[in-house]
Amino acid sequence: MAKEKGKKAKKRLLIFISIVIVLGIVIAGLNFLSLQNLLKKGNSYTTPEIENQLVPQKDENGYWYFTTDREFKVMHLTDIHIGGGFMSKTVDEKALNAIATMVTKEKPDLVIATGDIAFPVPYMAGTFNNYSGAKAFGNLMESLGVYWTVTFGNHDSECYSYFDRESVAEIYSNEEFKHCLFGAGPEDVDGYGNHVIKVKNSKGIITQAMVLIDSQAYVKDTLIDSIKGTYDNIHPNQVEWYETEIKRMNAENSQVIKSIQGDVNGGLFKQYGTVKTLAFFHIPLVEMADAWKEFQENGFKDTKDFKYIEGIIGEGGRRIFCGLGEDDLFEKMLELGSTKAMFNGHDHINNTTFEYKGIQFSYGYSIDYFAYSGIDKQGSQRGCTMITCKPDTTFTIDKYNYYSDRYNLDGFTREEVTMQFEDVTCQTPEE
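The structure corresponding to this sequence follows.
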């Protein structure tokens, strides 16, 4: 009797294992087909004609730079959240379509995506494979023929994902992405994707530089930390790297200016001696949350340090979700006087821009059709930020909603959405 029961138990176990194996094979097949369809979708878009497209070169330090005397246009995208699995096929295609529409219209010189390109959450996407999201986005950018780069977000390399940050960095560094300007960064500096992209004029003077930094993910990069949202900070050696690069660019400009006017005391040095930079990363600095709190406590009126510019804080509880504590980057920015604005994502419904202690903090519009419940049916948060870098080192910021008439283009179809979140009280300053 006992022997018979044992045989039945083994049989049931074998049946269970067989079912698991078959399901695994089926899911793997479906995910493979989904990725191929995404790649096909990316290839279906016509490359926009960009008049006098700028072609970057590499400097002696391995960083890319563009040379131009005209305005330089940067498109900031964030929180794209491509699931990359068979369960997210529909929303993934919508995300690609939104990006393609806006790139086709804006024709930027450079696209910068500040993290969470991938969203390989298995119970939502049907896959652990974060390669698929990175691959689909990169393929789309290459098909559109624009130069692009990325920083990492917390979801790009979740602890349960197939690939870690180093492996995903290798994907972006692959030669198949000929327009990708991503740099993994120095090996002795924490994170992946700490790199600089410069804009120079015809005299060789740096007129603007984009500094991209890995804002890390979770404090211990565990499932518990990811669920709790225990976000990490930019690390001290990254701040040191930032300072080194700013001083290196200042020295470079000083040499060029000296070769032009013979010294470093004239008008050129006053204008270009301290290189103007824009910083890009995923998770907001704690100072962003501190600044908004100061604004709130002052009755949503400007203070000595705070100047409201535009946008809302609409995240659940009207919050800014930042790192765990101070990281000294903001103080170093104030000390060096180079960085004039920071651009981040992470909070998909927040899109405010304000100035704090002379530096602009700016949330980008998100792309996300997937990560937040019901967000595919909402449209007020979706779009892009266009940053125009001018030859005199100044810049302007324009934020465009994806559902505006601006993107009513022939050959592109946009879905019907609701333009206000019904479950969120979006806090904005009084008129």
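The mean pLDDT is 88.
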